[in-house]
Structures are given as C-alpha cells and as structure tokens.
Amino acid sequence: MLFPASPCYSIGMDYNWITPRIALGAAPTNHYDANELQVQGVTHVVNMCLGHDNKPFFKHTTIELVYFGMLDGEDEHGLQQISAAIRYITNALANNHDHKIYLHCAAGISRSAAVMTGVLMQQQQLSLKQALTMVRLGRPVVNPHPAHLSNLLKISRKDQTAR
Hints:
Helix content is 46%, strand content 20%. The chain has helices at residues 31-39, 55-58, 76-95, 111-124, 128-138, 146-162; strands spanning 7-10, 13-19, 22-25, 44-49, 64-70, 101-104.
C-alpha cells in the first residue's frame, strides 16, 4: 500500500508516515517531540543514531525505546544493526496490531531510511528498488548511504537463500 508524502511538523519534529504503522523521521530532541509521538499512537521508537540518547525525553511516556546505533557508511557493524532493527520492527508489528513504530536517525534520510526499506522488502517481498521507491514516495528526502543499500542486498540474498 502506497502512502503519498504526508509531512508532519510539530515543534520542530520532521517525520512522515510511510505505512499506517511506521513513521520515519528525524531524531526527537525534546519532551514535546515525545508527547507528539505518543499522541500519534506510537508505541515503539527505534533509534539508529550512534551516540544520540533520547531516553530522557520519553521517561514520562509509555513508549518503548530501542537503540541500534550506527554511523553512516558502516559495513559489517551496519549490516548487523540494520538486520537487528528490521527483525525488531517486524516482530513488534507482528506481536500486536495496535503497535506503531517511529523509526529515526539524525535526519531521517539515510540510516533509518535504509531500515525502513529493508522492512518493506521483507514484509512485502519487494525488490530494493521497489521498496526504496515506496519509502521515497512517503518521504522524498530519503537518500540511504550506498553501504546501507549494499547491506540490504546482502540481507535480501540471505533471506532468499533461507526460503
């Protein structure tokens, strides 16, 4: 299911809903951002930023936070983190149909966009090109680092071999 670009801005927050249950965007930077996500029904925040701790902003919420920090362009560590984040998101959505995910890196352009692309590749059996097109329809600024795209192809080949 394709969603047209639907930007959401709230006290500096920049994000887009890519699917009805997954939003992709920039890192939350204050309590207002955490409140906005809770109001939007987000139940899980997936943080792909290395060294960005947003836990203090979420102490007053019921949102579950998980951290898969990595740098842009990381190869082996990036592959591990992207794979783990895809598994986490897939499991969180499968375990409860009311769960909603907010997936972010610093700007919602590269690391988190790669993970979002991988989730769509896996959930909807899309090619890398198809999934990336879908993500870009929802968030036009998306531009994953080439190393992350290479890692997604490795994950896809591994998944196809396992089938």
